[in-house]
Amino acid sequence: MTYAFILAFQSLIREKWINLLSVLTIASGLLIISLALFTVYNIDAATKNLPERFSMILYLDNDIQKEKVDAAVGILKKNHAVLSVRYIPKDEALKELKTTLKNSSYVFEGLDENPLPDAIEVKLKKDSVGQETVRKFAGEAMKIPGVKEVDYAEKFLSTLNYLRVGMKTIGLILIASLGAGIIFVCYSTVKILFYRRNEEIETFKLLGATKAFIRTPFLVEGALIGTSGGIVSLLGIFAFYYIVLLRLSVSMPIFKAILFPWDLFLVLPFVGTFLGVTGAAIAIGRLKY
Amino acid sequence: MTWADDGNNPMIHFNGVTKDYDNQTALRDITFSVEKGEMIFVTGPSGSGKTTLLKLIYFAEKPDRGTISIAGWETGQLKESSIPFLRRNIGIVFQDFRLLHNKNVFENVAMALRIRGAGEKEIKARVYETLKAVNLRHKADVFPRRLSGGEQQRVVISRAIVAEPTVILADEPTGNLDPDTAEGVMRTFKEINAKGTTVLIATHNRELFRNSGRRVIRLDMGNLVAEDRT
Ligand SMILES: Nc1ncnc2c1ncn2[C@@H]1O[C@H](COP(=O)(O)OP(=O)(O)O)[C@@H](O)[C@H]1O
Ligand SMILES: [Mg+2]
To answer: How many CA atoms lie within 13 A of A258 on its CB side?
Structure first.
């Protein structure tokens, strides 16, 4: 077993160019995977909290009576999807509008009547903020007596949904195909190494070497190549963090909001080991000896 | 796995063995036996089938007809996975040497022990002892390409005998050696044989067995034409 490591190391040094090439290929693959993961992670984190601020406005009939409003609020509060309900009388709405637009108060000049309707603001529970549930809820709300119109950012919700699902799908496809690509690189490398040592292996066999004696060094070599690729990609992602992100966040504070999942990246060498051994195992499994 | 030694079986037994390559017959209906502890020669002109005969013994080729048994084990009945273990009972001096050119003399000889899983200490002791016996102790760190033909030949012999196999198969072991070196090599084989190892030497050089009193099997174009004692 220890001799398998010696043979593997000897081969690593002897075939340094082939090995270096595949280590770099694996490292680039893992680096792209990491960056994809990093992007998906951040988009996911950034959009996760958006629905929390999501609210719906129910506009009420003109000159609606107090009892009708209370009844509507009561119905809404009973709904499981609802987090909070707030009645906004039209005077209050106008006052809010005036404070937000106080620098452009000329807008309100010559306004002798409040043009705003009474409204109810409904906040939904986070897990109820999906495109379908919101649409269903809006339909139900329309049926409440006194409700004239329901307004919510339908476009926003569907876009957000699209973005999250789309990014995750693309990320997954990218990770899966690059992962397969890396396995293939290890597979090819080990196969090349095997054929280059064909003569030597034939001699080992004639001296009485078992399959295990012959194969183990290739598994070890696949593991070493994969692990090295993983370590190089880890160094690459650290470089990306320190050189790109930290620099940028000095001049552009928005980059400070970017999350860097360290613990996720620390497994890269092990991912490399796994992919390397898998590739090597496929390679030697398909060989006659 | 070691070879059953019940005393009755010959070391090597060929029974009506024929071996065909793609379009020609290399050996035809060969029957002979080699007894345990015997030293025997296989001779014949180049292309007569000597190497093929040895390959059949060390499982590098399979017979097309007939049966071969080694120490009572019929080779046709063997499981693929037991071949490595059976091969460890055979030390082979290849006609084309098969030295590992990226390893030095020590490592080349040590390989026969490494594949058997021997420990470092044992490997050191045995390899140096064997190299000393063939007068190559001082070349242990040299790579094979830097050695003369005769020295390379002796490395191959060292590798074949270092693990003390039951049988030694030597294919043209004096192929390109000067008479003095050849004589030294033959002396080595005689010494090993004297310790009880069965030795089979394939050679086209009659000088090697003239007046040796050993049995000689003569091949010609794949046929066994004579079996006699010199
Ligand atoms: N691998 C092979 N494929 C085809 N023909 C072969 C092969 N090995 C040997 N032969 C042929 O078989 C015959 C016997 O060869 P060989 O056993 O090497 O003879 P020797 O060792 O006596 O010179 C020769 O004619 C040779 O050309
Ligand atoms: Mg020959």
So the answer is: 20
